[in-house]
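Priority: medium. Attachment 1 of 2:
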């Protein structure tokens, strides 16, 4: 009989971590599927991580960035649109809650993350800034 090189308690901890990660993935997938089934998010929608992008937004790819920080992921996107600000705000107020995001106005939170959606000026150009980051 062979003796394992990995201690039993390490195997148990690894198994627990894998089960928790799998559970988180399933919950996220179920929330997205539920939102799509309810019709609040079209299945062909464009996404920034797990945030849908409003159809009229034109992404300025040269301005955005993303990276993983020690406290979580940080993703910032800038976009233009001809749609009125009220339409963009209404879109996010309607699609984010079914995906598990809670909040109002510019800021929504889910778990340890927050997403802020607001109008900004960059070099005199009016843009929408969508930022996903760890909660403060």
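Attachment 2 of 2:
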């Amino acid at each position: 009989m062979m003796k394992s090189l990995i201690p039993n308690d390490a195997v148990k901890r690894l198994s627990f971590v894998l089960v928790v990660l799998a559970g988180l993935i399933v919950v996220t997938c179920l929330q997205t599927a539920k939102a799509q089934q309810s019709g609040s998010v079209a299945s062909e929608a464009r996404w920034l991580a797990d945030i849908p992008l409003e159809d009229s937004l034109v992404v300025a790819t040269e301005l955005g960035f993303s990276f993983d920080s020690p406290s979580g992921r940080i993703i910032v996107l800038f976009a233009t649109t001809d749609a009125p600000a009220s339409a963009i705000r209404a879109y996010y107020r309607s699609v984010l809650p079914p995906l598990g995001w809670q909040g109002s106005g510019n800021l929504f939170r889910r778990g340890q993350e927050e997403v802020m959606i607001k109008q900004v000026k960059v070099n005199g150009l009016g843009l929408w800034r969508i930022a996903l980051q760890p909660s403060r």
